Every structure is written in structure tokens, then in C-alpha cells.
């Protein structure tokens, strides 16, 4: 019963702010202005860091450090989500006034999928502990691929699930306002907005596969992993409107994210040989992210932001 109240606090805070976000989407359409987006990013980050204080007071400094490391990993990987969302919106030509609605459902999907993957990952580790080496190897391979990847356009049509949906459920050529479905000559069609939603949710699944093992490299405490992921993802929608116009400036971000994934993977693979203190891991992750961001901004300081 002692674990009930921390979960209750987390559920209450998360639920309240998700409700606020949902109400904002329902009542206000269109593109979120930069000033509002920055204000909401500040709210979400403050909320996430404030919960770290709560974790520290109730579970101790090491737990707070693990929470912060997990939060930082997930928040930095969320920036890569923004890249993918921007490409998907461009591919499906999603009108600016409907992007906020898609982003809300994208954030909600990200929370659900990560919760499922986190619980499954922890269960697998408890059932068969050597699986941690598989997770570590997966992270190292993924990190190397991410670091070597170039920012190329994506083709959602190459996704088998999306092709099946288009085959089984005809998609109209035109948008019908903010609706996911429409009727044409009495026949039911999905709109391009629904196709874009499916692509966004599929990308959420792919990112969960990458990010969840990275956080499990820090800790397998379900409370720490779930809360750090939950609070980091909450700000994804606002983060999109802050970063969407300057994505081309973060030229070293994928290199930095790849390095973080390789570090997390190596930490898993070598867990029986080398045990790094939580705050040292936090410092390494923060340093890699800071160097990649500052280096990107310096390298592109004369490049105007897009949009």
C-alpha cells in the first residue's frame, strides 16, 4: 500500500494536464504561436523537473537522478519525433490548422505505447535477465545507424500497415475539415487526416522500441521509468511548434542521439562488469546532448530558420 500514493500523485497530475491539453485542442484550432508554444514548453519542463523534486523527497537522491536521466533521454529523443512528425505532415500536406489535433493524438499514443513497451520490457528482464544484453546490443546497433543516417525524406507508402489500411478502407483525395472520416455519394471514406494519424501512431511505436530500452538501461523501477517517460512526452506537442521552423539547424542532433543510445546500450551490455553511478550516467547524457545542440547552433549560425 505504500506505493499507492506516488502512483496516485503521478496519475492525478498526468490526467489533469492531459485534460487541459485536450480542452485546448477542442476549443482552439490552428497553429500554436511561438510565444504560446514556448510558454507551454516551459510549463511541461517545469512540471517534469518539479516531479523530480517529488521523487527525491519520497524515494531519495539516487531515484531522483535515475528519473532525471530517463527524462533527459526521452525528452532528447522526442526531438527526433518532431523531425518525423514534420516530414509526415509535409508528405500528407496536413493543413496547419489540423496539425495540433494530430499532435495531441500522437502524444496520447506515445504515452500508451511506451507504457505497454515499458511493462513488457521490465517483465521480460525479470523473466529472463540475459535479455538485457539483447536490449543493449539493439541500442548499440540503433545508435550507430542513427548517427550515420542522413536527413532524407520518408515514404509512408512503404509501410505495409498503411498500405493495408488504404486497401481495406478507401481514402478520399480531399480533407473534410478536422474529420477523420467522411461520406462521398453515400460511401464511407477515410480522409487523408486519418491516414496521417495512422502514420503518426506507427512512428510512435517505432520510437517506443528505441527509447524504452534506453531508459531501462538506467533503471528497471517501473515507477521511475513510466513517470520519466510520461512527463517527457507531455511537452511533445508544444515542442513541435517551437522546433518545427528550425529543424534544419540541428545538424548534429542525430549524431548526439546516436551516441546516447550507444552509451545506454554499452551500459546494458557491460552491466555485470561496470556499474556507473546514476549521476555519472546523467552527466554523460547531458554532456552529449549539450555538445550536439551547441555544436549544431554554432555550425549553422548563419543559416536562417525555415518557416
Structure explained in plain terms:
- With 307 residues, the chain is mainly α.
- It has one domain.
- It has eleven helices and two strands.
- A hairpin with a 2-residue loop joins strand 1 and strand 2.
- The protein is globular, with a radius of gyration of 20 Å.
- The termini are far apart.
Topology record:
Layout: H1 4-27, H2 34-59, H3 61-91, H4 96-127, H5 131-148, H6 160-168, E1 181-184, E2 187-190, H7 192-216, H8 222-234, H9 236-243, H10 253-269, H11 278-299
Antiparallel strand pairs: 1-2
Distance between the termini: 52 Å
Total helices: the number is: 11
Overall average residue pLDDT: 82
What percent of residues adopt helix (DSSP H or I)? over 70%
Describe the sheet with the most strands. Answer: 2 strands, antiparallel
Total domain modules: 1
Coarse morphology: globular
Spans of at least 5 consecutive residues whose pLDDT stays below 50 are none
The helix/strand class is mainly alpha
Task: Quote the beta fraction.
Answer: under 5%
Number of strands: 2
Tell me the Rg in angstroms.
Answer: 20 Å
Order of helices and strands: HHHHHHEEHHHHH
Amino acid at each position: 500500500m505504500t506505493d499507492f500514493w506516488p502512483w496516485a500523485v503521478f496519475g492525478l497530475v498526468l490526467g489533469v494536464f492531459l485534460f487541459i491539453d485536450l480542452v485546448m485542442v477542442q476549443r482552439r484550432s490552428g497553429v500554436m504561436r511561438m510565444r504560446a508554444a514556448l510558454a507551454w514548453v516551459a510549463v511541461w519542463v517545469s512540471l517534469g523537473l518539479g516531479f523530480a523534486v517529488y521523487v527525491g523527497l519520497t524515494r531519495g537522491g539516487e531515484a531522483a537522478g535515475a528519473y532525471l536521466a530517463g527524462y533527459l533521454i526521452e525528452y532528447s529523443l522526442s526531438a527526433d519525433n518532431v523531425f518525423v512528425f514534420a516530414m509526415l505532415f509535409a508528405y500528407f500536406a496536413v493543413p496547419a490548422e489540423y496539425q495540433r489535433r494530430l499532435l495531441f493524438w500522437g502524444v496520447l499514443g506515445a504515452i500508451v505505447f511506451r507504457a505497454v513497451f515499458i511493462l513488457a520490457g521490465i517483465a521480460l528482464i525479470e523473466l529472463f535477465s540475459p535479455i538485457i544484453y539483447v536490449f543493449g546490443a539493439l541500442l548499440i546497433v540503433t545508435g550507430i545507424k542513427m548517427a550515420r543516417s542522413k536527413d532524407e525524406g520518408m515514404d509512408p507508402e512503404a509501410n505495409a500497415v498503411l498500405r493495408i489500411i488504404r486497401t481495406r478502407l478507401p481514402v478520399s483525395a480531399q480533407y473534410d475539415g478536422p474529420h477523420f472520416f467522411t461520406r462521398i455519394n453515400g460511401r464511407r471514406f477515410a480522409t487523408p487526416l486519418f491516414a496521417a494519424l495512422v502514420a503518426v501512431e506507427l512512428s510512435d511505436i517505432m520510437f517506443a522500441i528505441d527509447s524504452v530500452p534506453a531508459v531501462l538501461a538506467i533503471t528497471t523501477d517501473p515507477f521511475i521509468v513510466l513517470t520519466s517517460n510520461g512527463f517527457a512526452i507531455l511537452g511533445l506537442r508544444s515542442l513541435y511548434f517551437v522546433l518545427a521552423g528550425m529543424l534544419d539547424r540541428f545538424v548534429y542532433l542525430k549524431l548526439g542521439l546516436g551516441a546516447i543510445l550507444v552509451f545506454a546500450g554499452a551500459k546494458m551490455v557491460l552491466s555485470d562488469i561496470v556499474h556507473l553511478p546514476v549521476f555519472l550516467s546523467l552527466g554523460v547524457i547531458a554532456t552529449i546532448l549539450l555538445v550536439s545542440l551547441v555544436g549544431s547552433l554554432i555550425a549553422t549560425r548563419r543559416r536562417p530558420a525555415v518557416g
